[in-house]
Specification:
heterodimer; A: alpha+beta; Ubiquitin-like (UB roll); Alpha-Beta Plaits; globular; B: 176 residues; alpha/beta; 5-stranded parallel sheet
C-alpha cells in the first residue's frame, strides 16, 4: 500500500490539511468553505469548463479552476475576493445572454442551478447584450426532451452518458459560441440507436435543458445524489 | 414628515407585478401612510406628475408608447425601480425577439385566427423591433427581481426607501 502524503495549505487564511491527491475544491468543501460551481458534479470527471470555481493563488497572476487544480504544500488560496466575485457575476450573466433563459416559463423554475447561481453571485441584471439565438427543441424521444434554449454547455449530460452509462449517445458539436449538444451523429434523439433511455442525462442537467416530457413550468426536479454511489460501486467491481 | 411621492407604471407585462403589489393586503395601509400614490393603473390620474420620488416600473419596453413613456418617467422621477423580471430582463415579452415584428403580428392575428383576422393598424402602439429591459433605455436605480416579486419583497423595498435607505434585495429576491 502506498503512503498518502499530507499537504498543508491556507484557504481564505485558514490552515487546512489535505491529501496530496485532492483538488482545492475538495479541500475547501471538506472544510466548509463554499466555492460556486456549475459543470462540476460529484461522481463525474472534473472538467474546469464553467470557470465559476476559479480561485486566486498567492504568487500567481492566473486564476485557476479549483475543481482541477491539485493542492500544493504552502499554497495560499483565496476563494472569494472582489475580483473573483466580479468574474463570477460576469460568467453567470454571459450564460443568461448566450441562450434564451426565461425562468418564469421554464420547467426547472425554482429547481435550477443557474437560477440559484444568479442569486448566489448577486446578479441584479446583465451587463452584456442578449443574443436571442434561434434554437430548437428536440422532443422526438418518447420520454425526454432537449431544449437548446436552456443549455449552458456544462457537458454533465455528455459525461454521465459516457462515463457512467457507457452509451456515449450525447456529445458536443461545433466550437465556442456555436457549440451545441447532439445525439449520436446528429440524428434526432428519438432515432438514436445508442440511447438506453436511462434518464441520467436528464437528472444531472443543472437547468431546464433536459427534462421529462409532460412536465410543465416549475415541475421538473432533478435527482443527482445517485451518482457518487454508482461511481463507487463501479470502482469496487473493477 | 412629508410623504414620498410613489408612482407605479405598467409597460409590456402581464400586470402580475401589480397584482403582487395588491397582495400587500393590509400592509398597503402602512405604505399609504409613508407614500402618496400619485400615478398608477390603480388610481385615476391621466398625466405622469412632474416630481415623483420613486416609481415602480413593471414590464419591458416593447412599443413606441412604452419608449416615450419611459423617457418621460426618467425625466420626472428621482428613482426608478425595475419592478419584476420583464422590466429587468424583458422576460416573456422578449421571447418574440428572435422573430421579425411582422412575423409576430402575422402569427398572432392571422395564422392563429380562424375567422379572417386582420392586423390592427389604428389607435394602437406600434411594436419596436425588440422588447428590451428598462435599463437599456434609461438608467435604473434599483432592481426588484421575481415573476412576480413577492409582496414581502415589495414591502421590504418600499419600507427601506421610506426610511431613506437603499434596499439590498440580493439575499431576498430571485429571478422567475
Amino acid at each position: 500500500m502506498s503512503k498518502v502524503r499530507i499537504k498543508t495549505l491556507k484557504i481564505d487564511d485558514r490552515d487546512v490539511g489535505a491529501r496530496e491527491d485532492q483538488t482545492i475544491l475538495e479541500v475547501a468543501r471538506d472544510n466548509g468553505i463554499h466555492i460556486p460551481t456549475l459543470c462540476q458534479l460529484d461522481g463525474l470527471t472534473n472538467l474546469g469548463g464553467c470557470r465559476l470555481c476559479l480561485v486566486e493563488i498567492k504568487g500567481s497572476n492566473k486564476l485557476l479552476p479549483s475543481c482541477v487544480t491539485a493542492v500544493e504544500e504552502g499554497m495560499e488560496v483565496s476563494t472569494n475576493t472582489e475580483r473573483l466575485q466580479k468574474h463570477r457575476r460576469s460568467i453567470v450573466e454571459l450564460f443568461f445572454t448566450e441562450r434564451n433563459h426565461v425562468c418564469a416559463v421554464c420547467v426547472s423554475n425554482n429547481n435550477c442551478e443557474l437560477q440559484n447561481l444568479a442569486k448566489q453571485v448577486g446578479m441584479t441584471h446583465v451587463h452584456f447584450p442578449y443574443m436571442y439565438p434561434a434554437l430548437s427543441v428536440d422532443a422526438t424521444h418518447d420520454r425526454f426532451a432537449l431544449d437548446h434554449n436552456r443549455c449552458v454547455l456544462c457537458t454533465r449530460c455528455v459525461r454521465v452518458c459516457d462515463e457512467i452509462e457507457g452509451a456515449h449517445t450525447l456529445d458536443v458539436r461545433g466550437r465556442g459560441i456555436e457549440a451545441y449538444i447532439i445525439t449520436d451523429l446528429e440524428q434526432v434523439w428519438g432515432e438514436s440507436e445508442t440511447c438506453t433511455s436511462c434518464g441520467k442525462c436528464v437528472n444531472v442537467c443543472p437547468t431546464g435543458a433536459l427534462f421529462e416530457k409532460n412536465k410543465s413550468v416549475a415541475e421538473m426536479k432533478k435527482q443527482t445524489k445517485f451518482l457518487p454511489y454508482l461511481t463507487m460501486m463501479r470502482g469496487a467491481r473493477r | 414628515m412629508t410623504k414620498l411621492k410613489l408612482a407605479t407604471v405598467w409597460l409590456d407585462g402581464c400586470s402580475g407585478c401589480h397584482m403582487s403589489f395588491l397582495d400587500l393586503d393590509e400592509k398597503i395601509i402602512e405604505i399609504a401612510e409613508k407614500f402618496d400614490i400619485v400615478y398608477s393603473p390603480l388610481v385615476d390620474m391621466k398625466e405622469y406628475p412632474e416630481d415623483v420620488d420613486v416609481v415602480l416600473v413593471e414590464g419591458a419596453v416593447s412599443s413606441d408608447e412604452d419608449y416615450e413613456k419611459i423617457l418621460k418617467i426618467r425625466k420626472r422621477s428621482k428613482a426608478i425601480i425595475a419592478f419584476g423580471d420583464c422590466a429587468i430582463t424583458a422576460n416573456v415579452p422578449s421571447m418574440r425577439n428572435r422573430f421579425k415584428v411582422d412575423e409576430v403580428l402575422k402569427r398572432g392575428f392571422i395564422e392563429t385566427n380562424t375567422d379572417n383576422g386582420v392586423i390592427p393598424n389604428k389607435n394602437i402602439p406600434l411594436l419596436r423591433e425588440r422588447a428590451v429591459p428598462v435599463y437599456e433605455i434609461v438608467d435604473v436605480e434599483i432592481f426588484l427581481q421575481g415573476c412576480p416579486p413577492s409582496a414581502d419583497l415589495i414591502y421590504y423595498a418600499l419600507s427601506e426607501l421610506a426610511e431613506g435607505r437603499i434596499p439590498d434585495v440580493k439575499e431576498r429576491a430571485k429571478f422567475g
